[in-house]
Amino acid sequence: MQSLLEARDVRKSYSRATSLLSGKGRESRFVAVDGVSFSVAAGETFAVVGESGCGKTTLARMLLRLIEPDSGEIQFDGQDLLALGGEELRRQRREMQMIFQDPFASLNPRMRVGEIVGEPLAIHEPWLLRRERHARVAATLKRVGLGEDPLSRYPHEFSGGQRQRIGIARALILRPKLIVADEPVSALDVSVGAQVLLLLQELQQEFGLTYIFISHSLPVVAQVATRVAVMRAGKFVEVGAVEQILHRPEHSYTRELLAAVPELPKA
Ligand SMILES: Nc1ncnc2c1ncn2[C@@H]1O[C@H](COP(=O)(O)OP(=O)(O)OP(=O)(O)O)[C@@H](O)[C@H]1O
Ligand SMILES: [Mg+2]
Q1: Which of 261, 223, 227, 263 is nearest to 245 (CA)?
Q2: Whole-model pTM?
Q3: Mean pLDDT score, 109-132
Q4: Atom of ligand 1 nearest to the CA of 61
């Protein structure tokens, strides 16, 4: 299989003010992502699993160039992503979209759902006629299970699961190659989350999407992933096929994570 995304030795540190209380205010660096390398094949679901604070979101945001790595290389679709600028970067950006953890915080409360879902089209395909854009928005909302009714309503009028579907519609509308989903179901009830996971899987089949799926939950990862990276303190400690990670883990930290969730499905 051809790889769609390849990351090599990606790093990011943040400055962290220390000894503020002592009045010195000296700065130290804190390494959030510490030399991560991996590749993601077209059509797969590559999961990144790890505890809170291990660097998952920082990594995700670097892969989409929402934040700049300190060092490392990222190839996306045969291009050196970190070298792109201007129009070239814009063109690549439409191929990579993100779904966020918190469907409440990630949608602008002052925009109607039709505007939220249509915004990427307004940015990337400004030449579309109003009615063409409307038709694309309506079709996308329908595809994620929401019908046309939401178009002129506001995010607060929807449940968490519905809001996450709105976020999925916005990510989907440009027909990207890659979707990075950062904890897409962890803010939802289990049954609502399960339906959203099913939707994501259907969309993957239908549109040939590649997912990078970030989660702290091994049962969720077990349901969707083809391969899994186990992340701890900014590093990948183990990467492998989902069956291997869940049933024949090699790293002691992976075994610790697994021991904490006895209800995992059997191979
Ligand atoms: N902008 C920032 N400035 C300083 N430190 C940051 C910043 N963003 C993240 N961090 C720190 O980097 C580390 C990794 O954060 P990150 O959000 O990537 O973790 P995470 O794995 O996504 O956690 P969670 O599961 O809670 O979402 C944390 O210690 C966090 O406090
Ligand atoms: Mg996070």
Answers
A1: 227
A2: 0.93
A3: 96
A4: 18
